[in-house]
Write a structure and sequence with these properties.
With 135 residues, the chain is of the alpha+beta class. The chain folds into two domains: 31 residues; 90 residues, Immunoglobulin-like (Sandwich). The protein has two helices and seven strands; from the N terminus they run ααβββββββ. A four-stranded antiparallel beta sheet has the order 1-2-7-6, with no helix packed on it. Strand 1 and strand 2 form a beta hairpin. Helix 1 runs antiparallel to helix 2. The relative contact order is 0.17. The mean pLDDT is 80.
């Protein structure tokens, strides 16, 4: 699927939804795949797991924030002396990754083990149906 196909799809989705425009615009501007990540769910209505390859980062160098329906994961490496390297092939760059959260999913847990950051999201109880009175 080409970028133009995605743009047309997002315009169609925007026309059929209310308030999701910023989400569709964010999806169109995703430009980085670093660090790589997986999102999976082992069972229907079970927790959703986000795992991210953050090799070389320590717990204190990664910050996870939830704000206004969005999870932001930021990795910041301290400044290091670049001298002494004949070749440097292992990336040690800072990153910021953002993920939109569905209204009924909340973060439950986060763990860092063997260079993999794992976040678990659980589905919360749905809110009551609201009827809108016509004035």
């Amino acid at each position: 699927m080409s970028r133009d196909d995605f743009t047309r799809l997002f315009h169609q989705l925007d026309a059929l939804s209310i308030g999701f425009g910023p989400i569709f615009r964010d999806l169109q501007t995703i430009t980085t795949n670093y660090p790589p990540h997986n999102i999976y769910q082992l069972e229907v209505d079970g927790p959703i797991i986000l795992e991210m390859a953050v090799a070389g980062f320590k717990k204190g160098e990664i910050e996870i924030r939830e704000e206004r329906g969005e999870i932001t994961i930021q990795g910041v490496k301290p400044e290091s002396d670049e001298t002494g390297y004949t070749y440097r092939g292992i990336a040690a760059r800072n990153f910021i990754k953002r993920f939109k959260l569905a209204e009924d999913y909340k973060p439950l847990d986060a763990a860092l083990e063997d260079g993999m950051l794992k976040l678990v999201f659980v589905k919360t109880a749905p809110k009551e149906t609201k009827f809108i009175a016509i004035k």
